[in-house]
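Let us practice reading a record.
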Amino acid sequence: MRHRIGMAIVCLHISAVLYILVGVLALWFFLSTDDTGAGMVFGVGTLILCLVLAAGIEFVVVGLRRRKLWAWIAGLCVFGIYLPSLFLPLGAFGLWGLLDGGSRKEFGVGGTGGSH
């Protein structure tokens, strides 16, 4: 049975790149609109937060490639958080990829069910 884990991984990579872009743009914005120096603190802080989020997402990607159950669960959580945000398309496609029957089978989740 085919799986769609690759689709979920691509969605995670795209979101990591978007986080880095948001961090860089926030740094630029805070530096360009502030004359007091406080913008530097907010800009660097936002950039660091975005880099940490991107690194965490890439850590989940490594776990998904190694077919670790914790990474499948973490991926579901990440994509679930994306649903009520501007990352909605990534969340929807990522959940589709991880909840696909072949993907669940790769992680040993969702057996054949009861005795119907």
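A brief commentary: The mean pLDDT is 91.
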